[in-house]
């Protein structure tokens, strides 16, 4: 599995500084979206774990990706676990 | 213009105000972040109530301020050309809402400056206390002024003609009606409705809301023009 430090994340089309992939940050954002969809804490944690592992696998062969790519991949996988949470996760940036 | 017609115009203007979506978007984000951060339901309700109160207070203050300025400048009756300009503004904003209110992308992004949107989004995430939520409500109304200025200005012009007692009632009617949407969302959140359902409904119906708000602004502009300018001119002929 991919080491957390190896993949570089390009944020907001390069308008913000790049940063290394942070597994905990992704996990937390999935937990928050799943809890926002009124899922129980245990389920939110399980779903976040599964989605984060899937994204880590996807990142294995990619040294550099955008934050938008990660959001798309995470949303696609989250949809199979919890469609409402996936909707909120996807909509987060386009609500305002 | 009699009191009933004046209050009817204020009511329609407030309904148009209520159909604008920025404060609803911020309330949705605020509650989403609070629920996602494992905040208790009672605390979520306090935060969201603080936000709704902030929006209400700023709406009340803004309408009172605009009315006071008009009262000082024009006295009890604004000149005809001011009515004509404001009617033009209503129709112009109505057309602008039809064409530009939502960005052409998925979701419910609005045509407000992106820096405003980012600030409101960041603040909704950082808000932890009722006082912060209240101030976020105040700020949201200011960010929405681009759209709500037109209904507020026409309401202020109508209100300054009324006797003092009715002015206060008119301001109260406007403030309460303009909060109806937010209050409904607050009740839905309190009763445990899913945010995803609320947001899906908003996204599915965004073009209808856009059409309704733009159409109502245009209709209000024409109505006031006919009521105030055409009838006055034809009355003097």
Task: Characterize the structure shown.
Chain A has helices at residues 23-36, 41-59, 67-81, 83-91, and strands at residues 8-11, 16-20, 64-66. Chain A is α+β, with helices and mostly antiparallel strands and 96 residues long. In chain A, strand 1 and strand 2 form a beta hairpin. The longest helix of chain A is centred in the middle third of the chain and has 19 residues, at 41-59. The radius of gyration of chain A is 13 Å and the shape is globular. By secondary structure, chain B is mainly α. Chain B has one domain (3-232). Chain B has helices spanning 3-19, 22-36, 41-74, 80-100, 114-126, 130-143, 145-159, 164-178, 180-190, 195-204, 206-236. In chain B, helix 2 runs antiparallel to helix 6, helix 3 (41-74) crosses helix 6 and helix 4 runs antiparallel to helix 11. Chain B is globular, with a radius of gyration of 19 Å. The interface between A and B is medium-sized, with 18 and 29 residues.
């Amino acid at each position: 599995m991919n080491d957390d430090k190896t993949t570089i994340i390009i944020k907001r089309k390069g308008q913000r500084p790049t940063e290394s992939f942070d597994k905990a940050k992704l996990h937390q954002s999935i937990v928050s979206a799943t809890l926002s969809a009124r899922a129980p804490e245990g389920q939110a944690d399980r779903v976040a774990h599964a989605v984060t592992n899937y994204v880590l696998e996807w990142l294995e062969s990619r040294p550099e990706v955008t934050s938008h790519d990660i959001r798309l991949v995470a949303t696609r996988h989250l949809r199979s676990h919890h469609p409402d949470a996936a909707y909120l996760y996807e909509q987060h940036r386009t609500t305002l | 213009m009699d009191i009933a017609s004046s209050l009817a115009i204020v009511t329609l203007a407030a309904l148009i105000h209520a159909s604008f979506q920025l404060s609803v978007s911020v309330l949705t984000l605020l509650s989403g972040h609070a629920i996602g951060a494992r905040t208790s339901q009672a605390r979520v309700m306090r935060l969201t109530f603080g936000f709704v109160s902030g929006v209400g207070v700023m709406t009340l203050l803004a309408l009172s301020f605009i009315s006071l300025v008009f009262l000082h400048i024009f006295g009890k009756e604004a000149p005809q050309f001011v009515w004509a300009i404001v009617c033009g503004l209503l129709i112009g904003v109505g057309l602008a809402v039809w064409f530009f209110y939502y960005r052409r992308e998925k979701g419910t992004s609005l045509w407000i400056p992106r820096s405003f949107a980012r600030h409101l989004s960041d603040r909704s995430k950082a808000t932890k206390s009722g006082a912060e939520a209240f101030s976020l409500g105040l700020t949201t109304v200011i960010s929405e002024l681009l759209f709500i200025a037109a209904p507020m200005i026409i309401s202020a012009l109508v209100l300054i003609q009324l006797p003092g007692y009715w002015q206060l009632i008119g301001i109260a009617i406007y403030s309460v009606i303009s909060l109806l949407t937010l209050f409904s969302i607050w009740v839905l959140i309190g009763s445990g409705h899913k945010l995803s359902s609320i947001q899906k409904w908003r996204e599915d119906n965004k073009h209808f809301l856009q059409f309704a708000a733009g159409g109502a602004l245009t209709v209000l502009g024409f109505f006031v023009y006919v009521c105030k300018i055409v009838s006055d001119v034809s009355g003097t002929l």
